[in-house]
Design goal:
Order of helices and strands: HHHHHHHH
Helix content: over 70%
Shape: rod-shaped
Distance between the termini: 35 Å
Largest sheet: none
Oligomer: single chain
Number of helices: 8
CATH topology of the largest domain: Four Helix Bundle (Hemerythrin (Met), subunit A)
């Protein structure tokens, strides 16, 4: 039975019950056919034969009574009426004979009806002779004939009809007994079939319930354990039916769920680790962004100093130019202003020294800006590297790290923009340093020329014209220095604009880092929820 499926077991059970019902119907039909045959025999032969036999006896008694009335009647008219009734009685009795012979009678009845008809003919002959003698009158000869011949003939035909009626009655009783016996047999067969069917149904129901109920209860019990997170239970496969296949499928499903939950648990641990690493990276990026902001503030302050120094240099160069013009005018107007020119030259030397000092300070500030730009470049490179590491960790996190991957990409883009801006600033600072170097060289040369001029003025006043020419030659140089200082001022303004862009980039970086922190918090919360959700499952080791 274990090799049969549930469908086959149900079909076998109902097939057995159906076969029993068919066998019961066949037996019942056979019994009913036998009962119907006996009932048909009783209806078509036994009962009609019994009725016709009784009717024969009635006609015979009526005829006998009419003969007695004929013998006792004194009037001729009455005798004629009685004779007519006797003829009618004979005609009716012969019709009964014909009806009896028309029945599907058995051979025994057929053998009896012929002697009855023959004896009736003899009885009619004796009856006619007696009636003829009765018409003449009643005498001793008539009485003798009545007692010696008519009465024995009547008794003989009457006894034969009695025997015929008894035979038909026996046949009717026999048919009735057979019908009752068939009905009783049918009842016993139906009761036995019913009991066997009930017993078979109980047995089939028991085996079907055991084949369905026990595996179903085991399945429900295993489902209850799984509902509470216990994946260590397995169903025992003891049959090859549908429940056996269901148990195998259930065990495969539990194995796959166990593997899936185990993988989710491992993934949760990996996600938590990745979130921790990304959080550390974010904190490092936040510190880097703070350094960038601090450096940007310092560069802004230095740029403002450079701008102020450049403006002061422009004013100083304007003063120097005016002094040079005045010196040339004084030298040209009078040789007597030589002393004043010497004093003026000393002022020019002092101004040139101040310019050189300020240009030196400007060169130092430019060097400081260069160092800061180098620091910003390193910070931008480190930020780019950290954003790349953050993107890699976000890729490891899978679906949970998509938001943080976008933030890491934005940070890397801002780091690239910072690198480009610092490169532009570095170029500008180099241009300023070049201009400052040129200005310093020019001022050194100018100072040397002024010194030589003073020596020449001191040694010989005849070289005044040459000094005037040299002073006039200094004017274009002053213009060159003024242009260099103006270029420094423009560069300082450009540096300020670049610092504004860098400040905005730093603010965006801080905002991106803040969003990264929020994304990390959400990812950490999701990872904790995931680990808490799968921690209640108990897996098979």
């Amino acid at each position: 039975m274990k090799d049969l499926t549930i469908r086959q077991r149900i079909l076998v059970s109902f097939g057995a019950i159906l076969a029993l019902m068919i066998a019961t119907c066949v037996v019942a039909l056979s019994s009913l056919q036998a009962v119907d045959a006996e009932a048909h025999l009783q209806r078509e032969h036994s009962l009609p034969g019994q009725l016709l036999s009784a009717e024969m006896r009635v006609f015979l008694r009526q005829g006998f009574t009419l003969v007695q009335q004929h013998m006792l009647s004194p009037e001729t008219a009455e005798k004629e009426r009685i004779r007519a009734e006797i003829e009618a009685n004979r005609s009716g009795l012969r019709q009964v004979f014909v009806r009896f012979q028309a029945l599907p009678i058995e051979e025994a009845d057929s053998d009896m009806i012929s002697p009855i008809i023959h004896e009736y003919d003899n009885y009619v002959s004796e009856q006619n002779a007696l009636l003829a003698a009765s018409d003449v009158g009643v005498d001793d000869a008539l009485r003798e004939r009545l007692t010696s011949r008519f009465l024995p003939a009547f008794r003989k035909i009457h006894n034969l009809t009695q025997i015929l009626m008894d035979n038909n009655q026996k046949e009717a009783e026999l048919s009735a007994n057979k019908i009752l016996e068939g009905v009783e047999q049918l009842q016993r067969g139906l009761i036995a079939s019913f009991l066997v069917a009930v017993l078979l149904a109980i047995v089939c129901c028991f085996f079907l319930l055991r084949a369905i109920g026990v595996p179903l209860a085991q399945l429900l019990e295993a489902l209850g354990h799984i509902r509470h997170g216990d994946f260590t239970r397995r169903l025992e496969v003891t049959s090859r039916d549908e429940f056996g296949e269901l148990a195998e499928g259930f065990n495969r499903m539990v194995d796959e769920l166990t593997a899936l939950v185990g993988q989710i648990q491992k993934t949760g641990v990996q996600v938590t680790t990745s979130v921790t690493e990304v959080a550390a990276t974010t904190r490092q990026q936040q510190a880097t962004a703070g350094e960038i902001a601090t450096t940007t503030v310092e560069i802004g302050a230095t740029s403002k100093e450079i701008s102020a120094t450049s403006k002061e240099l422009v004013r100083t160069m304007s003063d120097v130019a005016r002094v040079a013009d005045q010196s040339a005018s004084l030298a040209a107007s009078s040789q007597t202003g030589l002393l004043q020119m010497r004093e003026t030259m000393r002022h020019v030397m002092g101004a040139a020294s101040g310019i050189n000092a300020k240009l030196g300070v400007l060169n130092e500030k430019a060097g400081t800006i260069t160092q800061m730009i180098t620091t910003i470049t390193k910070v931008a490179d480190q930020t780019n590297l950290l954003s790349l590491n953050a993107a890699i960790e976000a890729e490891k996190a899978g679906e949970y790290g998509k938001g943080f991957s976008v933030v890491a990409t934005q940070i890397r883009r801002l780091a690239d923009q910072t690198a480009v801006a610092t490169y532009d600033i570095e170029l500008m600072v180099k241009e300023i340093q070049s201009a400052v170097s040129a200005s310093v060289m020019g001022m050194d040369k100018f100072s040397e020329e002024v010194r030589q001029g003073m020596e020449e003025v001191q040694t010989v006043s005849g070289q005044l014209n040459q000094i005037i020419e040299q002073v006039q030659a200094l004017a274009p140089r002053f213009d060159s220095v003024s242009e260099g200082v103006q270029a420094q001022s423009v560069g300082a303004e450009q540096i300020t604009e670049a610092l504004l862009q860098l400040s905005e980039a730093a603010q965006q970086t801080v905002e991106s880092i803040r969003q990264s922190g929020l994304a990390i918090d959400d990812l950490n919360q999701t990872a904790q929820t995931l680990r808490g959700g799968v921690s209640r499952f108990r897996l098979q080791s």
